[in-house]
Amino acid sequence: MIRMIGVLAASFGALMVVSRAWALEPGKAAGTFTYDKTSVALAAAVETKVENLFDEKKKDTLVVLTDKALGATAPDDDIELSLRARKGEITALVLRIDGSKLVNVSVYHKGLNGKVLLPGAWFQFAGPARGAGSLKLAPRAFDDHTYACAAEFLAAPAPAAAAAPPVETPPPAPRQHDTKPVPATTSSVDAKSATALLIQAMMLKDEQQALEIIKLGADPNGRDQYGIPVLNWAVMMCQPKVVKALVDKKADLTYQRAPGMTLLTEAGACPEAAAILRAAGAK
To answer: What is the CATH number of domain 191-280?
Structure first.
């Protein structure tokens, strides 16, 4: 009986939160996101569908909460969001939702190179019921930053991208030589640049390019400017083939982004990567 009362109370609380979200106009958010000592008022909310991390026949929902309208930026464009956030043009939280489960939250804010990926289990989450929902995170330290949020939203569908105008192809230049062009390669790129290229390929979800960069000699233990190794990036982006290639190149399996947050812990949302890590001896 006590357990049933607790479940009913939790359900009632979630309904109250969603009902408050319904008081918003479609496409709006209300609340704050705090990183370190900076608080940002969230104002906009859009949603779109993306391929499920594990089943190509399913779709996940992305809900993007921002302090300013996205404008021409697509809600699933990691690179553009990262670049704009780094320059202070926008602050964004991207919620990946599988069914009704919050898988993770990508964070973009001023001064950050790339994004921070926080586990969905850290958040109190309700919705989205027809776009309405809420997101809460008690202050939590992660990667030398402290994050917190409390927001409600009524997400509107992201506007369709405008079709690019046709580009006229110039006529081919007169053929002067029969010399074959040299294929593009990163073999002459220094280790730091190779690491950056590898991370960029993973952010773009271009597994094939990432694998080619690894074959060309990228450091399997290379790290971004915040000290996050490329193997951790491969796990976060759920790219098992890249995880396997890095493990085969003797990537370090002991890294923890926070105490207790091992590579295996982070691979909880990516079973194929977890299996590879476990077979290699990761704890």
So the answer is: 1.25.40.20
